[in-house]
Write a structure and sequence with these properties.
The chain is built from twelve helices and ten strands. By secondary structure, it is α/β, with parallel strands linked by helices. It has a six-stranded mixed sheet. A four-stranded antiparallel sheet has the order 2-1-4-5, with helices on one face. The chain is globular.
């Protein structure tokens, strides 16, 4: 099972510019979390801080009782072995075949034989749908295949925490859909803790167990995805609906008067936003993507269900209703499946 990552009061600045301040969140073990935010809000900086590439100004990042924001280089090196990272462009070596790219961490960080390395590399390539492409160079394949190769490389050391830095960047909607399914399938197979940084609204709505958003140098929200997907917070609604009206501007934050005028126009029905069901930011809460047929159930789904039920009474009413509706839908589908099995041929 993946490990918990507990972030408390994390602040990062470059010179006089604060990137974000007092960020606190907990990535539950084995669950899939997504971090959203407009461009320039420091999402990638947050990922680099999690793996110790950047030191925060203050705060803590606790992983297995180690504060990687303050620990020794030796402890940091050991803790980093828990991580696998998929960078935006795959970060593959252009002169190496896909096989050698994926084998690289094993050759650098383990003493495994080439036979053992081959077994692991082929297993991971098969997991990401790249079997048969071992001899290709990164320049000979599509962007989507490079992403999958980068993901296979991130998985070869069997990490307990996997970070995805905008995995959907540069991909068309169909490839993004395939990648999202792959992420859920991999989580079902590995039970590792996943954190995905993305701009993609579809990914945010259908992939994660937990959803968070960075804006105006702070973490606006983080919690079960139903909380953000039913939120009336203006910046969250604006982003998840991809509309112009709201606090987020083209190049910078809008002033309060402009935001107030735009939101008043929306309420009066004069804006470009088309309202949907009550709660859910106008779009409701869709079911979460499930593992492909033949794969095991996600162990994290059961743990997450129990955790959310225990905290249900603390959540906003729209989120409570969305969670209860999804649970009822899940129970109906399970009952229908059991009925189909009983009525099937003997």
């Amino acid at each position: 099972m993946g490990v918990e990552v507990a972030v408390h009061d994390l602040t990062k600045s470059f010179g006089r510019q604060t990137i974000w301040g007092d960020v606190s969140l907990t990535l539950p073990p084995g669950e899939v979390s997504v971090l959203l935010g407009p461009s320039g809000t420091g999402k990638s900086v947050f990922l680099k801080s999690l793996i110790g590439l950047l030191k925060p100004d203050k705060g803590s990042i606790i992983i297995r009782d180690v504060d990687i924001a303050r620990c020794s280089e030796g402890k940091l090196y050991e803790t980093r072995k828990l991580f696998g990272v998929l960078f935006q462009d795959g970060a593959l070596f252009g002169s190496m075949t896909l096989y050698d790219n994926i084998a690289f961490p094993l050759r650098e960080h383990t003493k495994k034989s080439e036979r053992e390395i081959k077994d692991i590399v082929m297993e991971k390539m098969d997991m990401v749908g790249l079997a048969g492409a071992e001899g290709k160079l990164p320049g000979e394949i599509s962007g989507g295949m490079r992403k999958r190769a980068g993901l296979a490389r991130a998985l070869v050391l069997n990490p307990e925490i996997v970070l995805f830095d905008e995995p959907d960047s540069g991909l068309d909607p169909v490839r993004v859909a395939y990648l999202n399914q792959l992420i859920i399938d991999l989580n079902a197979q590995t039970d590792a803790t996943f954190l995905i940084v993305t701009h993609d609204i579809g990914t945010a709505r259908t992939v994660p167990d937990n959803l968070g958003m960075l804006f105006r140098r702070e973490l606006v929200m983080f919690g079960p995805r139903e909380v953000l997907l039913t939120s009336e917070e203006p910046v969250v609604k604006q982003f998840l609906n991809g509309r112009r009206e709201g606090p987020i501007g083209m190049s910078e934050e809008k002033d309060a008067a402009q935001v107030a005028a735009e939101m008043a126009a929306v309420e009066a029905g004069q804006g470009s936003y088309v309202a949907g069901p009550k709660g859910g930011g106008g779009l409701g809460v869709p079911p979460q993507i499930q593992p492909s047929p033949g794969l095991p159930e996600r162990k994290a789904a059961g743990r997450r269900k129990q955790r959310v039920l225990e905290m249900l009474h603390t959540l906003p009413a729209p989120a409570q209703k969305a969670i209860q509706d999804l649970l009822e839908q899940e129970e109906r589908e399970e009952a229908e499946a059991r009925g189909a099995v009983r009525s099937g041929p003997s």
